[in-house]
## 1
Amino acid sequence: MRAAVWMALLAGVCAAQERPVAGYFCDGAGALRVLEGVEGAWVARIAVAEGVLSAGYDGRALWYKTERALHVRNGDGPWLSLEAPGGKAEARRSRDGQIERFVFPEAKLAAGWHGEKLGDLVEWDGDEEAAEEWLDAEWRLARKESGLYAWRAGLEPVLVPMAEAVTFQLFVRNGTQETAVGSSFVMPPAAPG
């Protein structure tokens, strides 16, 4: 009986430590971030550290755009990539909120999204108004000078916490003396073995 109680308690503690994913977004500084936890206790860890120009999520399909490619993953499926023009991408949604295509405003091109497949690049006339940025199927992202905010219908915008990227300092030890390494360092010769 005691073993069953302990197992139930441990299972509850482990489940409580999981942080649900509230969405994905580009932080404006080149990183793709994962918004985890619940409102009021969110954290925004870095998923892709650099080179991300734009990103989004519709609750199922996660995408991000680098300078040369658009990367899309639907659920647990494989990552699909499309060689794409420079600049940001935007997702366009159907009436049910699902992504149906990606547009590249600077190049005036678009590619369809069919849930499991990216279409070829075609000309886009740019007649649609700019799309909102979505964190998931219900949360949207608002960018203001003072920071990034998540909001959904009926609620006030909530500040998204932006933890800094982890940094470290490298030191070289020579006997008992340590010297900080700058932007480059030439390793001294060493004996084999």
## 2
Amino acid sequence: MKKVVSVILGLFLAFSLCVFPEVQTANALSTAPSAVCMSYYSDIYSRGFAWQTTTDISETKLMLVKDNGSTPDWQNAEVIEGTRKDFLNYRYHKAQVENLTPGAKYYYRVGGNGVYSDIGSFTVEQSEVKDVSFVYVTDSQ
């Protein structure tokens, strides 16, 4: 009987965290951007970014700095405004950047309202082929 009750309580807890996000812990509802994904966009010289935040973040910004051999200078970063969609207690953000310099390394962070993700980086390939075809699947859970 204890095992049955334990399983039922576990299922109820899992269900309530999925269906009623306001029940989640404060840590899960942090305002920092999470689930940051980067992929190719229109060709190998472009990138698309997606991330989520709580509804506390109203801005959708991608900050991009080309590597110059020192610490990224966020004061002089290129700022790309993205788009967002709201769903329940979350905002889903997207931004794209095109015409990146072949062979260059870039640093990026995403967010808004003074709250940003960890810093990521990528290097743009140098290639004669610009078109890319691929399937990219992710699951934020």
